[in-house]
């Protein structure tokens, strides 16, 4: 049914496009402050190695992708991964489980968006207090009233080997009172080959997305917007299991937004947002449903934009209620259910494994069903300090209640009270964060601008960091959570400098993060140095631990621009990123991104654009105890685009090559780096029609 609706949406756009007579609005690119890196998605896609969110952001300074293959790629920002990065879709939290495990894809389709922003420092605290900041994905559902009349886009591309095809269609109509939008995306990619010519089994991907929106402006001061996004991803997991491991992920979102511009001069805008999300994914092995993950979430937010004296800012109050449910039972996870109780003692099997191995192994449902109620209040404000400087302040507080319910766990695998009577107790806790920023604005009188921010952040541990106790089929690992984790605290210092002249530009960024009670997964070993393995699948065992930690790193980028000419424009750029992450005792943290250097050339002539880049990723040398190294590799990419102006419409034809020299490459951030190396040479061609 979903494929039929998508096909209808794509077909609808074609005849309507021929009647489109609206003039394309010009795009003005400005340099945002360092705490808000705002990038056009189409531009990001020209350099992206794949269609994942991490792939779109991978070439930004101090950003990496914890990816394997075509399907999975969560961004890692300044060494921060997982729950230390909040991902938003049009200001609503993406209700998925991608931070829980590296095999879970982010439940977004970035190529269907319009802009992707990276927020850090005070700006990020409006939405969350995360050391890695906020990734904010925005598309036409955020505001279809941007221009009156018809506007839209049809974009598609093909790849020969391994074969893939993508089609993205968007159509929007609006006037002063009404707005309508329909969009559809489909993606299909076959299993790829590594740089050694080996076919990587179960690395295929299929994605479908539908978006619908309706907007109404009853007057000049108010606006209503109703929208929905339906996303489905089906992909394989290239692990070592003899039977195919697959994940089918579905996300349904419904959103109602109200915007009002009031009369008081100090209150600029009122935003009210109500959002419902239903996320579900199953994990199959050999066609059997061995795992099922689901999360339903209701969110509501009130956001005020205001100005007072020299200050301007935003205040946001939000509340969310989510229910996370998990099933793990070989071939029996067609639905969620409550486990029967016979009256026998709870946790007999866990006690037996404690006696035999010293560890509370479980082969039942790996965690309790958990309800989470979260209230957040935040305020971000800034003001000028003279003509050259601005100061900004961000405050964020949250209160959370977690209610774990172990009735979904089979009685023999429930954590026994004699080991920990408070294991499933309700948790009520709060966290407070503050950030202060100072920046010097870029002015014509000086080529130097800079920004400093100092943040003291608190992060509450996630549900799975607390309660997970079980095997994960896709990553072939057994993970122990820790039910009494402390709040993670960090002191973050970020510094960004930019020096610009007509032909030269330097960008330098650095960061130092000091964590107290940093939460991470650490592989388990015996006293003799042998890797621990669980008794059910003989897979590696990982423990959720806490330790004080330090992160230090930075990036430098240089751009040389040719002198302005009517027809020819050249830009040469060089970039280098480095990161060092260790525990307070000096031991390196696992899966730390290795340093990299890249160089590129961009050339524009009339209606042509050509880019070439070389990225060298160094050998991963800073290893955690018993962690294996990852070899260095070179990654060469080319992009060629011809732009045609067809009256008031535009047609772009492009050709792209990634990993041109077919290098064998492994992503050190991936737990599946050995079974899922990065793809070998890929050449694709496509077209983009904007009207």
Description of the molecule:
The strands form 3 sheets. The protein has a 22-stranded antiparallel beta barrel. Strands 1-6-7-4-5 form a 5-stranded mixed β-sheet. A two-stranded antiparallel ribbon has the order 2-3. Helix content is 6%, strand content 52%. It has 691 residues and is mostly beta strands. It has a single domain (2-23, 35-690), classed as TonB-dependent receptor, beta-barrel domain (Maltoporin, Chain A). It is globular, with a radius of gyration of 25 Å. It has helices at 2-17, 41-47, 53-57, 348-357, 463-467; strands at residues 36-40, 63-68, 72-77, 86-89, 92-93, 115-119, 134-138, 149-159, 164-174, 178-189, 205-216, 222-237, 245-260, 267-285, 288-308, 311-328, 369-385, 389-405, 427-440, 448-459, 469-472, 477-480, 488-500, 504-523, 540-561, 568-583, 596-605, 608-617, 633-646, 649-658, 682-690. One of its GO terms (cellular component) is cell outer membrane. It is found in: Cell outer membrane. GO terms for molecular function: siderophore uptake transmembrane transporter activity. Keywords: Cell outer membrane, Membrane, Receptor, Signal, TonB box, Transmembrane, Transmembrane beta strand, Transport. Residues 46-134 form the TonB-dependent receptor plug domain.
Brief rundown of the structure:
With 691 residues, the protein is mostly beta strands. It has 5 helices and 31 strands. 6% of the residues lie in helices and 52% in strands.
